[in-house]
Amino acid sequence: MFSRVLREYRIRYGFTQREVAEQLAALAWRKTNKMVAVDPQMVSKWERGTKLPSSRYRQLLCELIGVSHRQLVGAEPAPVPVIADTSVPNGDVPITVTVIIRTDDGVPQVRVSHLGVPVHGEGASS
């Protein structure tokens, strides 16, 4: 379960395995002033389920992608942007737009917007 969840988060945030390894190393350095030995091959093994990360790496992964340990291992669902009220005036179709920004310190920030997009716009045929 962990391997699937990790891969889904990595893809959702648009990270390559190399970027996950680099971001984990940078995050560990900022937090502890210690180097960690993580590389893309290690991230690949975690995602394939051939090796599990130590508790230290799991903690760093949780911080990097902004989820709890229970969410990372799949024991608890992670928050997913949803539209609570689907009734939109004027026949518009509700849409959720999620933008993930990778900041200079490597920590992703998620911005969610709810928009109403007209079903029939100018030039649309009925």
Automatic annotation (TrEMBL):
One of its GO terms (molecular function) is DNA binding. InterPro entries: Cro/C1-type_HTH, Lambda_DNA-bd_dom_sf. It comes from the Bacteria. This is HTH cro/C1-type domain-containing protein. Pfam families: HTH_31. Residues 6-72 form the HTH cro/C1-type domain.
